[in-house]
Amino acid sequence: MNTCDADEEPSRTRKKLKLSCSSPPSGLSLLPDEIVLSCLARVSKSDHASLSLVSKWHRSVVASPELYDFRSLLGFTENRIYLCLRIPPDPNPRWFTLSPKTLNLRLVPVRSYFYQPPEASCMVAHGCGIYIMGGKIDGRATSNVLFLDCRSHTWSTLPSMGMARYSAVAGVVDGRIYVFGGCEGRESGKWGEVFDPKQQTWDALPMPPPRCDFPLVCESIVIEEQKVVVMNGLGICLSYIPSESKWKKGYRDISGIKRCWHVIDNVVYCSLSGGQILWCEPSELEWNEKMEWREVMGLESLRDTLAASKMVNYGGGLEIWCAEISLEIRKKTCEIIGNIVWSEAVMTLDPPPHQHHCKILSALPLNL
After folding, report:
1. Residue span of the signal peptide, if any (predicted)?
2. What residues pair up with 147 in beta bridges, in sequence order?
3. Cα 148 from Cα 4, distance rounded (Å)
4. Among the residues of the chain, which ranges form H helices?
């Protein structure tokens, strides 16, 4: 298996580099493993592609799990964004990565997988990679699970879920991956399942309250690394607390579609189709009474870019646009102010044929 555990403790002594190369040893390869790893751990991951071209030996080191462990141990990991796109006429998903700290803010292609379901998969980042669960293949739901190791950009298959699912949602609590919805779960008793990456096993979760196991689920977030909050297709928020194996029914949203839920510094953010970014306190999602989302102020200039689509058409060309926003919380006025750090196109595509539209399937942050 190529999976990794986020809680795995790197060791300076117990791991040895197992590298094969037909070229005679020279330069760095003559040094002890610890010194090699300590030196290369300081090289930005954005330069690893160039470093891999030096020799087969360099390429092996750059792709090794030991280098990832050393980067984590020494505190040289970097934040990166992994983007999954479907670009017509190719039906297969394609993967790219973006490093916000590089001077050239462009999407860089990474190795994709021909057998990845073309639509409706549930994806979550955990540890050193991305888990792709379920989806549709030839119009039918699948229980397949794939893993993209983002250290080496290699793929592997994992044990299948107990239920075939599409358009499910997921969250990670205490190193385990919780998946909800995307199936008719009442009859099977498997509306939710949990995957243990260490044991490589799936287990069914307790069923949610009656009439809450709606097949369609819209969003999910993890609160304080202790519970998963899910919104089903009826707009009902459900909280699952793994430590207690219990569900709690909360707020029901009937005020319109809110997408792209995220938690940043214990504040929940989402976006509207009109381009506004909203926020609320996590505790409000668990209320049974009416709550009110508030708008992040100062981002009016981004509304046209965010509205309805994550892609913008400029002069016949299609561009994928990305922005970095810093957030300022003003407790006295109960406001959050957004400041645009940068905003620009990170990829330009030829006009899609026959009016087909490219689609962003997922955007996931990783620290590598």
Report:
1. none
2. 131, 156
3. 10
4. 33-40, 48-52, 56-62, 65-74, 185-188, 303-306
89 preceded by cis ω (within 30°)? Answer: yes
What DSSP letter does each residue of 217-276 carry, written as one string?
A: EEEEEEETTTEEEEEETTSEEEEEETTTTEEEEEEE--S--EEEEEEETTEEEEEETTS-
H or E element that contains 201: strand 201-204
Tokens of 301: 């200039």
Are residues 270 and 278 in contact, defined by beta-carbon separation less than 8 angstroms?
Answer: yes
How far CA 360 is from CA of 89, 93, 195, 229, 318, in Å, comes to: 15, 9, 25, 23, 13
Rounded to two decimals, what is the model's pTM? Answer: 0.87
d(CA 177, CA 201): 11
Distance of CA 103 to the CA centre of its chain: 23
pLDDT digits (tens, 9 = 90+) for 116-126: 999 999 999 99
* Cα gap 120→183, rounded to integer Å: 12
22 DSSP 8-state letter = S
pLDDT in tens, 52-95: 888 888 888 887 888 888 888 888 888 899 999 998 888 899 99
For residue 350 the two structure tokens come to 């030829």
Structure token pair of residue 92:
């297969």
Task: Give helix 65-74 / helix 33-40 axis angle, nearest 10°.
Answer: 70
- Domains of the chain in start order, with CATH, are 1-77 (1.20.1280), 79-267+283-291+353-367 (2.120.10.80)
Which DSSP string corresponds to 84-127? EEE-TT--S-EEEEE-TTSSS---EEE---TTS-SB--EEEEET
Cα separation, 118 vs 138, in Å, equals 9
Q: Record the tokens describing residue 36, joined without a space.
A: 């090699």
Structure tokens of 211? 């009439």
Q: Are strands 201-204 and 94-98 parallel, antiparallel or unpaired?
A: unpaired
First-to-last C-alpha distance (Å) of the chain: 19
